[in-house]
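Worked example 2:
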Amino acid sequence: MNKSDVAYSVYVGYADWRHAAWRGAFYPSDMPEDWRFDFYQSQYRCVWLDAAAWQAITLPEWASLAAEATTAFRFVLETTPDGVPPAVSALLGVRVVTMTRAASALLCLDSEADLKALAQRMGSASLSAPIFVIVPPTAPATMEKVETLLEILGV
């Protein structure tokens, strides 16, 4: 099985991947904008999109993302009263996950993240459903700590 097709118990990513400030920092400065998602997903397993962000993506853009995304990548979309449009769900299939910001499976960290609590949660033997760890785009140091923690835990 290809590593890009493996389902994980812990998915780590950022809130969105389209940040102008990342050009030259995360994304190479000469990278075309339409290559950024593919580069992002080579580094992270999921992306959180709040309702405003994912609803602003057009159906043709979703089709392009669906064509690029590996089967193991997850688009974590904030739940809305109307839900995800059927056409988007059909394009993404198992790669779309919806949840509220308060969902127990969604851990939104900030620069003051409690990594000890995160380690306890990830280290528990009762991980029966995936956990999505989301870091804001302004906290790269937190992401580095999370990645180190995951490596230590073997997750």
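The first strand starts at residue 10 and ends at 15. The helical segments are 36-43, 51-55, 59-68, 86-92, 115-123, 140-153.
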